Amino acid sequence: MVMTSLMINSDREAVVDFSLPFMETGISIAVTKRTGIISPTAFLEPFDTASWMMVGVVAIQAATFSIFAFEWMSPSGFDMKSVSQAPNHRFSLFRTYWLIWAVLFQAAVQVDIPRGITSRFMTNIWAMFAVVFLAIYTANLAAFMITREEYYDFMGIDDYRLSKPHSHKPMFKFGTVPHSHIDSTIHKYFPEMFNYMKSFNRNTVTDGLNSLLTAELDAFIYDGTVLDYLVTQDDDCRLLTVGSWYAKTGYAIAFQRNSKYVQMFNKRLLDFRENGDLERLQRFWMTGTCKPDDHDQNATSDPLALEQFLSAFLLLMGGTLLAALILLLECLYFNFFRKKLAKTDQGGCCALISLSMGKSLTFRGAVYEAQDFLKFRRCKDAVCDSQYQLLRNQLMSTYSKMKQLEKELELRKLKSEKRYQFSPASPLRQRDIVRPSIISTEYANRYDHEPLRNRRNGD
User: Fold this and answer.
1) CA 192 → CA 163, 183, 197, 326, 348, distances in Å?
2) 273 is in an annotated binding site
3) What residues does the Ionotropic glutamate receptor C-terminal domain cover (predicted)?
4) Do 107 and 120 touch, CB atoms closer than 8 A?
5) CB-based contact 380:353 (threshold 8 Å)
């Protein structure tokens, strides 16, 4: 009887009798963890290509042209025909692009705000889209910007990088223990792989794992159960097994041919398997400080697909349609209802609403608009400022001349009043309404015009 880590195969079974397998095993691959670096394109990985195309080509362009079109068509917004009437209002397609990018990235830069209520509403919709976009992007970006441990994730020994080592540049360095069951299996089914790995073989399993830790080997191929056990015993937890087992078999007890003890051991092994003793022993002895499935927790995050980001685009689409409806209502108001509302608005409430929309409903509101328009129409350069000061001086000079002329007119008025003063007995003298007086026609001939004529002739 032989008690060791003996795997069942056809060559051994030809010379000995095996008991029932008490533990499963297969050919596995051990690799080491490496500290990875952040990819230069990690900032693009939170979204897939379709999502980035939707944001850059569809969302930004649609929002830009929508805001500019709504501002152009709005009665209270930008209009090409009224550019000369509003030189302070600087808004164009490229300024709209600047506004879109500034809102999207929340940049603290100076932007030109549209004047129309519809375009402003559309700008707020774009701001809501930007908030959702940045929240999702920031939350998913953290998963891609964290430095995590990397390893060679082979699918098994039939992986093309191992089975055809010359097809990959640079070629991987891997080996096994020579003259073992693993070595004979690879020699039988993977001759190219067997010839390549001869120079990288190690005498023992411990030497092979130490070569992984010192980066002398990229992978070490051996018995899956043995590798799982040794990986869990690594103090630094830098080792792990990857891929699926190849050529699955089991461990068994070897006896001489036609031994009488084979049936006795098979019966006891079945009893241990039925009452769970084999599983308990395996969990107790084959488990270490490092769990063999730790590398599954470091799996990379997948970029968000377009379906997961679709709600933000639906928000932008719904906001655009709602803004178009608001533009229609705004045009109807300014073209049909504004004049009627001005006649019926007695309290002034509607006038305040209309003034907030960019067009006054009353004459006083129009004055306020004119004051605001003149307030912000100021020079922005030195030449314009000098011309403004020159015109202002001319205006002050004209104003002083007007004051001087008013004084001269006052003096002439006083002189004229003195010339037209009447005598106390004149019937044209202003009467005292308190004292009674009687005017008779007999005094009509006594009215003397000569003094007045003489004064005029004297002048």
Assistant:
1) 7, 13, 9, 73, 93
2) no
3) 54-288
4) no
5) no
CATH code, residues 42-78+90-145: 1.10.287
Model confidence at 163: pLDDT above 80: yes
Structure tokens at 42: 């990690």
Q: How far apart are CA 335 and CA 75, in angstroms?
A: 9
pLDDT tens-digit series, residues 135-152: 888 888 877 776 566 788
Model confidence over 314-337: pLDDT tens digits? 888 888 898 888 888 877 877 777
201-179-17 Cα angle (round to 5) = 145
| Predicted model pTM | 0.49
Helix (H, G, I), strand (E, B) or coil at 251: strand
- Alpha-carbon distance 351 to 353, whole Å? 5
63 pLDDT above the threshold of 50: yes
Note the pLDDT of residue 457.
46
**What DSSP string describes 366-379?**
HHHHHHHHHHH---
Match domain 2-36+150-286 to its CATH number in 3.40.50.300, 3.30.450.30, 3.40.190.10, 3.10.180.10.
Answer: 3.40.190.10
Query: What's the helix, strand, coil split of the chain in %, to 5?
Result: 55, 10, 35
**Residues 6+ positions from 166 with CB-CB distance below 8 Å:** 192, 196
